[in-house]
């Protein structure tokens, strides 16, 4: 069958449009936690934040449609660990987590975590070993929890779990724990929201870590197309942002 040049061009354009539509028809579920200022809900109930903005860039480059939902960290982690085509951020890569995901690191500049205490409170630590003598507040399934458990901290003895960051900080303010492990940025955000002085909570020693890279991670059983698109999108993101890292 003979096709004129005009028909061939129209057919080509139609195929390109169909290919583009199919690309964005591939949808993934993205999960995270309430960890301001990196990821949190704004007044429109939209998930925003400095790290969230980076994730959205990567997904646009990957030509994937997506929805982002914010849950308690343990629930978000369980969903991403158990369901294909689920992407989770922002998390630290640990040996315990490594095998469950395809990893994309880093998605932002390093975020250091510190043992935080109430200003002028009695506990004084100079190293992680001394911290074992106090009650340390962590969030269920988060990286500090995993790291401290590996280091010999024991749940119910010197390690106390909370369901989320707000609950964990409230425990510190109430005197239920001596320290929590958190970033300076997040503590400042929480204190401002509570209208408390920004020096109400003080940072002490940093949590020792092999690296402070913040990552996003895709369920290990995800579709190859999703893995490939996300890999491409992440590479484009890295290239575009290389000057700022």
Structural overview:
The chain is globular. The N and C termini lie far apart (55 Å). The protein has helices spanning 5-25, 50-61, 73-82, 95-98, 128-131, 143-150, 165-174, 184-193, 224-241; strands spanning 27-32, 40-41, 47-48, 65-70, 86-92, 101-108, 114-118, 136-139, 159-162, 179-182, 201-206, 214-219. The model is unreliable at 18-23 (pLDDT under 50). With 245 residues, it is an alpha/beta fold. A five-stranded mixed beta sheet has the order 4-1-5-12-6, with helices on both faces. Strands 9-8-10-7-11 form a five-stranded mixed beta sheet, sandwiched between helices.
Largest sheet: 5 strands, mixed
Number of helices: 9
Beta-strand share of residues? 15-25%
The radius of gyration over CA amounts to 22 Å
| Dominant shape | globular
Task: Work out the number of β strands.
Answer: 12
Give a topology summary.
Layout lengths: L4 H21 L1 E6 L7 E2 L5 E2 L1 H12 L3 E6 L2 H10 L3 E7 L2 H4 L2 E8 L5 E5 L9 H4 L4 E4 L3 H8 L8 E4 L2 H10 L4 E4 L1 H10 L7 E6 L7 E6 L4 H18 L4
Parallel strand pairs: 1-4, 1-5, 8-9, 8-10
Antiparallel strand pairs: 2-3, 5-12, 6-12, 7-10, 7-11
